[in-house]
Amino acid sequence: MYINSKHRIFGLDIIRALAILLVLCSHSTLLLFPNQNNVYLTVTQFFGTVGVDLFFVLSGYLIGGILLKQINEGKVTVKDFLYFWVRRWFRTLPNYFLILILNILLFYFLHEKIIENIFYFFAFLQNFSSPHPGFFTEAWSLSIEEYAYIVGPLALLILMTFFKNCSKKTLYIVMSLVIIIIITFLRINYHTNHDIISHHDWSKHIRKVVIYRIDSIYYGFLAAFLAQVFHSAWNNYKKWFLVLGILLFIGLHSCVFLFNMQPENSQLFFNVFYLPLLSISLLLFFPFFSSWKTGGPFKNTITKISVLSYALYLINYSIVLLTIQNFISVEGTPLVIKFLILLLYWFLSFGLSYLLFKYFERPMTNLRDSSFFK
């Protein structure tokens, strides 16, 4: 698999590869121990959720950087923003719609049912303001990312239209902060009017709903601004930021563990503060990793995993894991059989993702660079 690494930042490839591997490890526990619950499984599954948050803040950091680059180059017309959206959509939508259609066909083949309100998935409305359905469950995070890509740049374009004399970078910050504040108030409103009865309930109604989560992307926007405007401090204090991020991450979850904090007994903390603090702790790692330009002996492997991460995320659960579970029961099977099932899951996930990337995703992303779209 040929990869043009000229413009890639190895440290960010590490973050992306780590994020998808955490997700795969988490899903592996669901495959092998679907009805079991212990501290080891809980920790592994927790880091899987952290992997998704890594994707959120990384997406915000990269997309925010692209918007800032457009601002610096004076590319702030409606045409420029349309070109920005076309490039993003050619990167994300073809894979999504292909896997969505495959999921619909696979679900019908296995269960002879058609999902109710399936058309919501084609507009990313399935979890816009309510819990995500039980079908194609990994799509919840894609809805959050897609709306974040639309809302922020559109708000920025509107601000620049009405405040032509203001600094474009100032308006970029205003846009990011206003969206973060609005989403925070929406979570406060939910907290005021609803009771959370379990961690699953919190995850379903808060963590996986668009209008309560897109602020995670915009924390990444703020980090992109800081990285550009305060470039010297971003690089000079990168190790200190890394240490601070580790301390915040460990401290945050140590409090959760030591004080037995759960969404049902610490609702204000989880509904309003936990997810932003998690995003900030992860972004504090970025000064260190965003300056990591070269790799060691595992560079090619890490870069390939990073490149396949989007395809892996789409394929590994609904397409591979649930299909395996439909035909193979792991309950009461010997450990060696479970190991073989695990190998099958990882082999199919990477193999199908490679095929998706090579024969569909990469041709689509190459098409966006054609002269027609420029």
Automatic annotation (TrEMBL):
* Protein's recorded name: Acyltransferase
> What's one Pfam family here?
Acyl_transf_3
> Is Transmembrane helix one of the keywords UniProt gives this record?
yes
Q: Where is the Acyltransferase domain?
A: 11-357
Keywords attached to this entry: Acyltransferase, Membrane, Transferase, Transmembrane, Transmembrane helix
| UniProt entry tagged with the keyword Transmembrane helix | yes
So which domain of life are we looking at? Bacteria
Q: Where are the transmembrane segments?
A: 12-33, 45-68, 89-110, 170-190, 210-229, 241-262, 268-289, 310-329, 335-357
According to the UniProt entry, its GO molecular function terms are: acyltransferase activity
